Amino acid sequence: MKITDHIANANGKTLFSFELLPPIKGQSMDGIYKAIDPLMEFKPPFIDVTSSREDLFYKETADGSIQKATYRKRPGTVAVCAAIQHKYKVDTVPHLICGGFTKEETEYALIDLQFLGIDNVLVLRGDARKTDSGFIPTPGGHCYATELLEQVTNMNNGVYLHEYQDTSYKTDFCIGVAAYPEKHFEAPNLKTDFKYLRQKVDGGANFIVTQMFFDNSKFKAFVNQCRENGINVPIIPGLKPITTAKQLINLPKIFHIDIPEDLCDAIHDCKNDKEVKEVGIEWMINQCKELVDFGVPVLHFYTMGNPEPTKRIAQAIF
Ligand code: FAD
């Protein structure tokens, strides 16, 4: 079922969902199931599975020379989605990214998804490779999420690459896109970033999922700006509780978000990460309560494979 239908059927009740990473190459699905099982009692209507592009790795061989290899550390997004859908009878949302995939490979992935009965996709540009200073498009692939979105909407209109037949089957994907209440780090300002978000919605995006944030006022301002400018699709807040003191440095560095002073101060007062986790969970529970009052359709958690903090928050909210 489409995310938009899940939201419509909830009649204003806030839903619970979460996101997982595929297993590292060479690992089994057991870790995924262990990350899902504790959260199923909160009846998520859908679970997201991230995608990643290839990275460059350097390895020293026995003779001392350096070997360069390129591979994807966490392949298998489509298969992980299918496995979850099959085992838990819950919808899945595979993330589709521009980086690392040609348009043809994307088309084949979308055809696989359609055959597997996966109705939703989250289309993204994707992160840069760790060894690159910025995002470098893959030759034959897309540069921006808008272009990938266009490919999916084309297929929803029965338009495929290299058409050779008179008619084509129309897919019916419900399409999500990303947004950044605190601005995407490459955008010169919020207004320009918003202009491209608008393009994504005008181009057919059915729902929005946001980057994590710790200050609800920024999310609310972002939602209000969307509504005032005619963006009326559901906006799903992305959430992640802080669990270690190191994240005070890592989260802003990786995700380009601010951490409110009060939260920072409370974490600085902690003696160890056990205490930090309690502070992080408490902060997130308060954030979630306020977001439910604000009327968000879904609370979407970036679990990063660790379900326990999210479970404690969900217990307090649902
Ligand atoms: P875009 O919408 O393409 O925007 C990228 C930048 O370009 C922005 O600064 C935007 O303002 C600008 N821009 C957009 N269109 C144009 C245009 N036509 N011309 C000029 N500038 C333009 N990354 C992964 O690798 N895998 C994942 O699974 C993943 N999941 C994510 C889930 C969520 C909910 C979020 C918020 C992010 C996720 N990311 C993921 C990270 C994301 O891929 C990065 O933040 C990436 O840098 C931007 O992706 P985007 O889809 O927002 O890009």
Automatic annotation (TrEMBL):
InterPro entries on file: FAD-linked_oxidoreductase-like (IPR029041), Mehydrof_redctse-like (IPR003171), MTHF_reductase_bac (IPR004620)
Keyword annotations from UniProtKB, A to Z: Amino-acid biosynthesis, FAD, Flavoprotein, Methionine biosynthesis, NAD, Oxidoreductase
Entry EC no(s): 1.5.1.54
Catalytic activity: (6S)-5-methyl-5,6,7,8-tetrahydrofolate + NAD(+) = (6R)-5,10-methylene-5,6,7,8-tetrahydrofolate + NADH + H(+)
Pathway stated in the Swiss-Prot or TrEMBL entry: One-carbon metabolism; tetrahydrofolate interconversion; Amino-acid biosynthesis; L-methionine biosynthesis via de novo pathway
One GO CC term, this protein: cytosol
UniProt keyword Transit peptide present: no
Any single GO BP term: tetrahydrofolate interconversion
UniProt xrefs under Gene3D superfamilies: 3.20.20.220
Enzyme class, broadest EC rank: oxidoreductase
Cofactor(s) the record lists: FAD
GO molecular function, a single term: methylenetetrahydrofolate reductase (NADH) activity
Superkingdom per UniProt: Bacteria
Family per similarity comment: Belongs to the methylenetetrahydrofolate reductase family.
Entry-linked NCBIfam families: fadh2 (TIGR00676)
Protein name, entry field: Methylenetetrahydrofolate reductase
